[in-house]
Design goal:
The chain has helices spanning about 10-20, 65-75, 75-85, 95-110, 140-150, 195-210, 240-245, 295-300, 325-330, 355-375, 385-395, 425-445, 455-460; strands spanning about 5, 25-30, 55, 85, 90-95, 115, 130, 155-160, 165, 175, 190-195, 270-275, 285, 315, 320-325, 345. The chain is of the alpha/beta class. The strands form four sheets. It has a six-stranded antiparallel sheet. Helix 1 (about 10-20) runs parallel beside helix 10 (about 355-375) and helix 2 runs parallel beside helix 10 (about 355-375). The two termini are about 35 Å apart. The protein binds flavin-adenine dinucleotide. Flavin-adenine dinucleotide binds near residues 50 and 348. Flavin-adenine dinucleotide (FAD) binds near residues 132, 135, 136 and 141.
Length: about 450
């Protein structure tokens, strides 16, 4: 008898399967590779890392390090395999990708409660299930998800604009304003970076010359204009718009209409607008600035924008195929679907970004599916923990601008501080609060009592 079906044996699915199986559930894990390929995976191993071999910072006062410490406390099998397969990489956790995937595959294959079925699942199952089919979910399953949730609630391309830290913007040059003064905030909703004509032409030239990330076959549609669901209009990378004519950006995402630079009293030749990206106001995204430039090139070229000479990037722009659901409308912070208690989503398909975030949400979905099966209430983790904050973010973000989000301090509730402190010290405070609140929440839910499992003390 099978208690739980998991669709997709990637990062989230493998962790979810292990967590549920450790809690005694009979799990059937479906993985469509090798018979059906994704276009990005190269092997038939479970938990294959499709691109970089880094799982992000390991330092305890960095956002990714905080998340790692949380999933360590929660008993992550994939993190353990990553640590066994780790390579020297300074403060980051980089792995030998083949060894990592092999270790995970062996642990899943050898688990007495897990059965692996190498088959594509085309429809959402009707019984207790976790969907972890990832950013490259097969078209048939995507259709079934769209049928359950509404086509407009499934997105197929990532068009992420870069996000920068607010305190790295030079406000001597940039100015706050809304077009035609129509914003909600008195001082203006946007931070505007004004260009003179010469600055604009130099910027366009640099953009056109910069090196781009090579598109893969399945991403070629990006060049023709990206359409996804009903929510996206054309969201071409800025460098592609620039190719259409030197002034096309000045009439597109960089149009200056309705804005006056308070320092000159005149309308700038062009403008890059920055929009607040998190509640704390510590992050801003570059509006309409989807880009496929290589990351070091983004840093170099975008720092030519007046006011962003010293910009610190929290996230670079990206374009690739990425299937993800409208989690703010469809999921609860327990990762259950809004209409079905017994249907969970985890991994990149929820809009949580990054290898570690995908592993972490798989872990929570596995625990929660097991809890549901055992007639216990699924867990909602405190929003002061990095995993709780990620789940909170994807289920509460503004749907209009919903884009995948990775672990970062900007999504945590602000610290209750009486004096200004440095970035590193803030990181330490966030980390201490997160681990303290997680340990407390776990003790409250008596999670330490699960047989053969972790205890809160083990990882603290
Ligand atoms: C091209 C690309 C590059 C990326 N690079 C990075 C990076 O460098 N760093 C980073 O942190 N993140 C990166 N990501 C984002 C993300 O972290 C990874 O995609 C991550 O692997 C997602 O984990 P997951 O478990 O959600 O999905 P996956 O690891 O992709 O696992 C999903 C699994 O489901 C299977 N599957 C799909 N449909 C079905 C079906 N119908 N039936 C059965 N099985 C199915 C797939 O074969 C796959 O094995 C990248 C994403 C893409 C698309």
């Amino acid at each position: 008898m099978t208690d739980l079906l998991i669709i997709g044996g990637g990062l989230a699915g493998s962790e979810a399967a292990y967590q549920a199986a450790q809690r005694g559930l009979k799990v059937r894990l479906y993985e469509m590779r090798p018979s059906v390929q994704t276009g990005a995976h190269q092997t038939h191993d479970l938990a294959e890392l499709v691109c970089s071999n880094s799982l992000g910072s390991n330092l305890p006062d960095r956002a990714s390090g905080v998340l790692k410490n949380e999933v360590r406390i929660l008993g992550s099998m994939l993190l353990e395999c990553a640590e066994i397969a780790s390579l020297p990489a300074g403060g980051a956790l980089a792995v030998d990708r083949e060894l990592f995937a092999r270790l995970v595959t062996e642990r899943i294959e050898n688990h007495p409660n897990i059965e692996i079925i190498r088959e594509e699942v085309k429809e959402i199952p009707g019984s207790l299930s976790i969907i972890t089919s990832g950013p490259l979910t097969s078209p048939a399953l995507s259709q079934s998800i769209a049928a359950l949730s509404g086509e407009e609630h499934l997105f197929f391309f990532d068009a992420i604009s870069p996000v920068i830290h607010a305190d790295s913007i030079n406000m001597e040059v940039a100015f706050r304003a809304s077009r035609y003064g129509t914003g909600e905030q008195d001082e203006g909703d946007y931070v505007n970076c004004p260009f003179t004509k010469d600055e604009y032409y130099a910027f366009v030239e640099a953009l056109l010359q910069a090196e781009r990330i090579e598109l893969r076959a399945f991403e070629e549609a990006i060049k023709g204009g990206v359409k996804a669901g009903h929510f996206f209009e054309g969201c071409l990378p800025v460098e592609i718009i620039a190719e259409r004519g030197v002034d096309s950006l000045a009439f597109g995402p960089m149009r200056p209409v309705g804005l006056k630079d308070p320092r000159t009293g005149k309308r700038p030749y062009a403008v890059v607008q920055l929009r607040q990206d998190n509640l704390a106001g510590s992050l801003y995204n570059l509006v309409g600035f989807q880009t496929n430039l290589k990351y070091p090139e983004q840093k170099r070229v975008l720092r030519l924008i007046p006011g962003l000479e010293n910009a610190e990037f929290m996230r670079y722009g990206q374009m690739h195929r990425n299937t993800f659901i409208a989690s703010p409308k469809l999921l609860r912070p327990t990762l259950q679907h809004i209409t079905r208690d017994d249907l969970f989503f985890a991994g990149q398909i929820t809009g949580v970004e990054g290898y570690m975030g995908n592993i972490a949400t798989g872990l929570l979905a596995g625990i929660n599916a097991a809890r549901l099966h055992q007639h216990e209430e699924p867990l909602t983790l405190p929003p002061t923990t990095m995993l709780g904050a990620l789940c909170h973010y994807v289920t509460h973000a503004d749907l209009k601008d919903f884009q995948p989000m990775k672990a970062n301090f900007g999504i945590l509730p602000p610290l209750d501080l009486t004096s200004r402190i440095g970035k590193r010290e803030r990181g330490k405070f966030y980390a201490e609060r997160a681990l303290g609140d997680l340990t407390f929440a776990l003790a409250n839910h008596a999670l330490a009592a699960v047989p053969g499992e972790f205890s809160a003390e083990d990882g603290a």
